[in-house]
Amino acid sequence: MRPVLLVLALLAAPSLAQTRHNTAAPIDFGADTIELQDRANRAVLSGNVSVRQAGMNLNAARMTVAYTGQVFGGNPQVSRLDASGGVTVRRPDQTARSSYAIYDLNRRVITMLGAVTLNQGPNTVNGGRLTINLDTGRAVIDGSSVGSRGSGAASGTATRGGRVTGTFSVPDRR
Fold first, then answer.
1. CA-CA distance, 39 to 34, in Å (whole number)?
2. CA dist 91 → 52, 64, 118, 124 (Å)
3. What's the CA gap between 91 and 55, in Å, rounded?
4. Which of 59, 90, 96, 143 minimizes the number of CB atoms within 10 Å of its CB?
5. CB-based contact 45:58 (threshold 8 Å)
6. Whole-number mean pLDDT of the chain?
7. 78, 77, 26: which is closest to 53 by C-alpha?
8. Largest Cα–Cα separation, the chain
9. Residue 87 has pLDDT above 60, yes or no
10. What domains can be seen in the chain, in order of their start residue?
């Protein structure tokens, strides 16, 4: 494992593990409009989209909800959420932002792409792609330049060379 990935895993994993996400919880949503595409087994939410599952909130300008076609308890079984446009994922102890996100409910993984910023307390890490395993709590960020808006730490995005940047807080040792 590359040193930067190891540092991020150590930074993110302890608090993620303490707040393990309940992926079986119901998904509540709100949006300005919804378009149901039953033949395609999907719904398209647009305008101020807000999704909540257990202690996690996901906000975006647009989201496509894919479901299996199976109905359980009167509800379709959601398998994937694809979000775009100013995506924010908030958990009790951290906030991540990106251009795009995919929440694969079957794998219980969130992948965020394009100009990713992960904040946990005073610590900040920037990169091109963030993957969060909701079962294990492991978060990995890399410098993939997919959809990055700029170049360098000053812009809060991955650099053209695909590097991960950030700031870790240091305890006061006085």
1. 15
2. 10, 21, 11, 15
3. 6
4. 90
5. no
6. 81
7. 26
8. 65
9. yes
10. 3-167 (2.60.450.10)
pLDDT of residue 141: 93
Map residue 13 onto helix, strand or coil. Answer: helix
Give the pair of three-digit tokens for residue 7: 């540092």
Q: Which residue has the tokens 């091109």?
A: 128
Q: In one letter, which amino acid is 171?
A: P
Single-letter code of the amino acid located at 39:
R
One-letter amino acid identity for 20?
Answer: R
Strands 165-167, 139-142: parallel, antiparallel or unpaired by DSSP? unpaired
pLDDT value at residue 139:
87
Residue keyed to tokens 């303490």: 18
> Tokens in use for 76?
């379709």
Collapsed DSSP state (helix, strand, coil) of residue 111:
strand
Dump strand ranges (E) for 32-74. 33-37, 42-53, 56-72
The helix (H) or strand (E) run that includes residue 127 is strand 123-133
Alpha-carbon distance 130 to 70, whole Å? 30
